[in-house]
């Protein structure tokens, strides 16, 4: 059967199958979600050489570790690996030179809220906030290796990677930590109906009760959960890099609603709320695909050739333009569907 959709008669047996597979491995691991003794986080498939000219325009940004778009200020923010820095482009004047802003270390993830971009830098243990349009960077030293930061209420939630927890940073007062059950806290997503944390080592997602300070129920997220994003329907969309799939989980309650096959090394993901499009990069094929996710299963609307190793993707919701970053140093691609 090629497609599994969101109907309950499929979702419930699938959940049961995951639980049974977990129980069979629990004899050796003691963990109902872990299926191997020594889990390894999924990474992107290695891209072949580019055989088709990338669609759209390519900006000479170098090697990209993360990117994001602030639609409110029409700003493209590209995190460059070497030297660690941010390159800021005006989306309305891409021919103009980028503004370069040095970082302490390589950024692992950029997360946008209106007029603000959260910059997680694992190596120096720093989270920085880039405010726009004034282009001001403000640092917060959190220690450890923060891999993702999200504005939440008047504070922030920081996924602490190998520390196996989430740091809650209020606007004022002491920080607190939410942990338990996690093998790694690799991203934190606010769906509007609940907070979910992605655990790449366990290839799973967990609900998080921020007020109570608890990590709640967890579900397997395929064979190699890689990246996650919230959509407009209270769900978390997750790419499965190993099995080649796009997964959709409701957050409250945490239930797997959809599993759709996406062969070719599904990895990076971004969401266009205005058009209900999930953009997924296929690193094994040097492609980016746009899926309409409004219905019972994703519907492919667009497919474009990309730069090599398209690990990062973002979207400008105002224009619908898609931005793809090459981790192999081949620049940042701007595509108008």
Shape by Cα distribution: globular
Q: Report the β-strand fraction as a percent range.
A: over 45%
CATH T-level topology: Methylamine Dehydrogenase, Chain H
H/E element sequence: HEEEEEEEEEEEEEEEEEEEEEEEEEEEE
CATH architecture: 7 Propeller
- Biggest sheet layout: 4 strands, antiparallel
Q: What is the highest CATH level, the class?
A: Mainly Beta
Question: End-to-end span in angstroms?
Answer: 31 Å
Strand order of the largest sheet: 1-28-27-26
**Mean pLDDT score, rounded?**
90
Contiguous helical run count = 1
The count of strands amounts to: 28
**Tally of distinct domains:** 1
User: Which percent bin holds the helix content?
Assistant: under 10%
Superfamily (CATH H level) name: YVTN repeat-like/Quinoprotein amine dehydrogenase
Explained architecture:
Keywords: Signal. This is DNA-binding beta-propeller fold protein YncE. Residues 1-26 form the signal peptide. With 337 residues, the protein is mainly beta. It has a single domain, classed as Methylamine Dehydrogenase, Chain H (7 Propeller), CATH 2.130.10. 7% of the residues lie in helices and 46% in strands. It is built from one helix and 28 strands. It has one helix spanning 8-29, and strands at 57-59, 64-70, 75-80, 85-90, 99-102, 109-113, 116-121, 126-131, 136-141, 148-152, 155-159, 165-169, 176-179, 187-190, 195-199, 204-209, 214-220, 225-230, 235-240, 245-251, 254-261, 266-272, 277-282, 287-292, 299-305, 312-315, 322-325, 332-335. The strands form seven sheets. It has a four-stranded antiparallel β-sheet with strand order 1-28-27-26, with no helix packed on it. A four-stranded antiparallel β-sheet has the order 2-3-4-5, with no helix packed on it.
